[in-house]
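Homework help thread (please don't just give me the answer)

Our assignment gives two proteins as sequence + structure token strings and asks us to describe the second one. The first is just a warm-up. Here they are:
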Amino acid sequence: MNMRKLLLVLIMVGCTVGVAAQQKIVVKGTVKGDLKGHNKVYVLEGTQKRDSVEIRNGRFTIRIPWVKDVAPYLHAEYDTTLRPRLPAFPLVVDGPGTIYLDVADVNRGLRSGRIRGNQSAVDFQAFEDGREKLRVEINAIVNERFKGGSPKDSGYNMAFLELIQQRLIPYIGNFVEAHAGSFAGAFILGRYQPILPASDLERLYNKLSPMQQRSAPAQEVAARLIGIKRAAEGQEVVDFTLNTPGDQPISFSSFRGKYVMIDFWSSWCGPCKASFPYMKELYQQYRSDKFEILGISIDEDKGAWLKELKKQELPWPQLLDTKNVSVNSFAITAVPTAYLISPDGKIIMKQVGFGEERDGEIEKKLKELFGR
């Protein structure tokens, strides 16, 4: 290799290394107050601590690999130990670079710090400030209306949900519209898609800039919008294949000729597990060559799913949703949710949860269909 070619290779390698070195989010923080010895800051991946640094003399610097469309979460040992109700918070950044986080009072938690240096992260913090203000106002209104009431009361919950519809949803929509060209706008839309009406979700998705529509959160919204259309009554279920606990593939089309109640659930869902004794009775009553229940878990942790299946001993077929069928074909926003499918594969109806009186719409329809 001659010197000219060698120099060219070295320049190319140097450029590659330089670019790779820049692909970091560098968080430089200042923290005021007595940490009481709890001086670590963590980067979380799910619930796992991926990395940590120590706060020394009120300062810390942590370097996080930048991954496109992924928001790393920060948490403080001080919060974990002394303020356990304070959750970790995401840094909604749209690229590598330096972010400054200034915490004026450690007693208020790491998430109270002011962010500088990345406009998307600043935008998201502004959204969170407004959302927290709304949450406090909504709680105050409901508590004043239901003095001595409990979140377990149906009236309390209905009032709370009404105010969410009246105030939080418009707030989300206005913010996304105003930040349609920012990753923060796409991130917020993706984060709150389960509570937004379908018409608002589609309108806001269409408002996003072309670049943000290609982001991962917006792609999740696009998949849900497809799922909403596919999940309408009368639509034929798009065939899918998922695996059993024994890793055997089963296609939905193999159930053709039967009425099928698809039960979407998860191992972490209390109401799902509470419904199983009743579902077993239902299965015993209607099981035949004309009716089947199909359980589809939305668990991301296969081990947790298998452990719960062993505990519950459910007698109907079970599949794990590893292909996001729950969203892109059924637009699931909560579990348990059930769909009743006709023998020719068309959606008859949807039911969220099972009524305490065991008189849900699907139960009524089964009585009508099978006369018992």
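The one we have to describe:
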Amino acid sequence: MSFQGLSAYRPQMLGLLRIVAALLFFAHGTQKILGFPASDMSPALLTLPWIAGMLELVGGAALILGLFTRPVAFVLSGQMAVAYFMAHAPQSPFPALNGGDAAILFCFVFLYFVFSGPGAFSLDRASGRDG
């Protein structure tokens, strides 16, 4: 069985991965900053959780659109590395126990976008800024 023919769909699947990952990330920002879905989180203005929420909201929206994908993904990858080591790692060395699985996964998915670019369905590609 050959999977060779699937390579033709690489840009579309990369674009789909970017959109889905960004939608999940964006939801963390809407929860922190906009209170949707409702939660106990309501970070005070200009605190680290508020800054994280703004990065999730604005950066997530930019990645959904595929706008400035590489630099935004670089910043968000760094944010997730910092979040993991500040909030999760001190609780336990095991991600399954410290709740840091998503932070690690977001970190490396976003880092991949730095190198891969946005894939299909992006404003970057439509404008000719990135291919």
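TA reply:
I won't write it for you, but here's a hint about the kind of observation we're looking for: The mean pLDDT is 95.
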